[in-house]
Write a structure and sequence with these properties.
The structure is a homodimer of 210-residue chains. In chain A, 30% of the residues lie in helices and 26% in strands. Chain A has 210 residues and is an alpha+beta fold. Chain A has one domain: Electron Transport, Fmn-binding Protein, Chain A (Pnp Oxidase, Chain A).
Chain lengths: 210, 210
């Protein structure tokens, strides 16, 4: 009986792998969660955010006459394959992005499918090579709340070297409170997607543990 | 004599390759121009711009309350290994970025070394994994000027599928007139770099044809 269950479990995992497929990412790791169907906007959006480890975080630069200032940052929305959709960051005010956000929280995070390595020969600007921009408010997490613990765990798991970054640089945890989602994952313009649809989608997680 | 010259040329190319090194990029092509020394800010900046094919272009979104809106775009600063440093884009007003720029030209282009594939195991936010933000004005190129010809050639060579994009979408050429450069390529904060130093640096080109 025990053997039967084990075999059944092994067989299910095998079928799951064949069904879901495995894809090489640009970073050399295997993606266990296959890119969702482009018609499923919420799942695609969550996949893009949870599979990427970095993006461009945009703020309003007071130093540069109110210009939109993009900065390459690492982020995490949770433990690997257990993302919740809200991006967290580990930033220092030695960098203009954190300074800008403390003066004006308006911000966006932009992520491309291209560096994941699943766009094939498509151009990075081809609409079938997905991209997402989450617009909202970039907020400093203060104190030692549960959310700070979550952010620390989410970030340090995906970005192990962060834990050793210089204490004197005063890195702090920030999060993006999402107010608008711009998603292109196929031809025909941006996909309609509400914040609730995005945050409540658990298909990636379900797919990973099914 | 002819044989001697050919051999000498071949030998020089061989030495050049050994000297410059070849590096695998994330896109699977060989980089013939090695990453410059981080102390050479101008060469590093030009290398980042000429070796990358895409970045995040940020504009001010009137639709989203003046928020900074980043968008994944393809760009080119010239023919392969002959970049001039000024990024050109092929955009349609079906997309918010071009619409935003026609209302407010303030813009920035953000590029990371990470997708080039030369950061090794460094985190994308590690300062030794270089990043650059060019801030300035995003301008529509009108008419059939020599600059439009240059932009077309620069973009369609690096992004061949662009030439076949739907005519009805009214793609147009834009360029970023650079007013400020934010470059991080090592520890110790942003590297001082003027627009003139950046535009007048031809080390990449020299290294390629030396």
């Amino acid at each position: 009986m025990g053997i039967k269950i084990s075999f059944s479990c092994f067989y299910s995992m095998y079928i799951l792998c064949v069904f879901l497929g495995t894809q090489d990412s640009a970073q050399g790791r295997l993606l266990l969660i296959k890119k969702p169907d482009p018609n499923d906007a919420a799942a695609t959006a969550r996949w893009l955010v949870s599979q990427n480890s970095w993006g461009v975080l945009n703020t309003i630069s007071t130093d540069l006459g109110g210009a939109p200032f993009g900065n390459v940052v690492s982020f995490s929305d949770g433990l690997p394959d257990k993302g919740r959709g809200v991006p967290y960051f580990y930033l220092t005010t030695l960098d203009p992005t954190a300074r800008n956000a403390l003066k004006d929280q308006r911000s966006s995070l932009t992520i491309s499918e291209y560096p994941i390595g699943t766009c094939g020969k498509r151009d990075p600007e081809n609409p079938a090579c997905a991209k997402i921009t989450l617009t909202g408010k970039l907020k400093l997490l203060e104190g030692n709340s549960k959310e700070v613990e979550f952010a620390r765990s989410a970030l340090f798991t995906k970005h192990p070297e962060m834990e050793g970054w210089p204490k004197g640089h005063n890195f702090q945890f920030f999060k993006l409170d999402i107010e608008d989602i711009f998603l292109i994952d196929w031809f025909g313009g941006p996909k309609p997607l509400t914040i609730d649809q995005y945050l409540q989608c658990n298909k990636n997680e379900v797919a990973a543990i099914r």
